[in-house]
Amino acid sequence: MKARKIAAGALFVIGLAATAFAVFLLVWGLPQDGEPDVGEPVFSIENFDGWVPPEPAATATPEPQANTSPFVKLAVPRVGIDAPIVVRGVKPDGAMQDPPGPKTVAWYNFSGRPGARGNIVMAGHVDYVNYGPAVFWRLRDLKEGDEILVYLEDGSVYRYQVVSLTYYNADDAPIAEIVGPTPYEAITLITCGGNFDRSVREYDKRLIVRGARVPDAASAAP
Fold first, then answer.
1. Averaged over 146-150, what is the pLDDT?
2. Domain-by-domain residue ranges, the chain?
3. Any residues with CB less than 8 A from the CB of 127 and at least 6 apart, and which?
4. What topology does CATH give the domain 8-45+68-220?
C-alpha cells in the first residue's frame, strides 16, 4: 500500500507546567479501521491484573531523583518497536516539534524523566510520506501488561507495563489529562489513528497508550 502524503493533524493544547500551556500540531497519515468508541479505553488500569501504581504515601517521604542521563532508545517488544529517541521541545510559536522521521521517537523535554514521579511524553509517526508504515504503526496492537522499555546512555533500562489504550477525537482530546503530570511514574505514547479524511488530509483520531513503571525495574543494560 502506498504511503499517502503527510497531512496536517489537529491542534492540541498541552501543559508545560501546572499553570502553563502551549499548542502543538500532530502530523501523520494512513487510515486505520476498527477503532473503538472514542474516549472509551480498550482496556484501562481498573481491569489491569498486574502491578497497580500505589497511592501516595500518607507520610512525607523523600522524592526519588530523576535520572538525567540522555535517552537512547525505546523498545516495545510485542509490536517490534526498537527505535532511537531524539529530544524535541516546543517552538516559540507554541507548536510542538514533530518527530524528525519515520524511524525515530520524540521525547518532549517539558515532560517527565525516568526514576521520578511524573509523565514521560513521547510521540512517533504512524506512517510517513514516501516511506509507508512508520515506527508507531503497530502501537494499536498493544495489550495490557505489554512491556515498554526505555534505555538511557548510562546503561540504565526502565521498564513499564501498558495499563491503558484509548482513542480520542483529534479536535477535542483531553490534552491536560494526556500529557499532564501523573501521581506515579508513567509513560505516554502518542500517535494518530482512526480514519484519514481526504478532504482535509488528516486523521480524525489520536491513539494514546499509557504505561506505568514496574517497581525496581531500572537495571544495567545487557
1. 98
2. 8-45+68-220
3. 3, 4, 28, 29, 30, 102, 133, 134, 137
4. Sortase; Chain: A; (2.40.260)
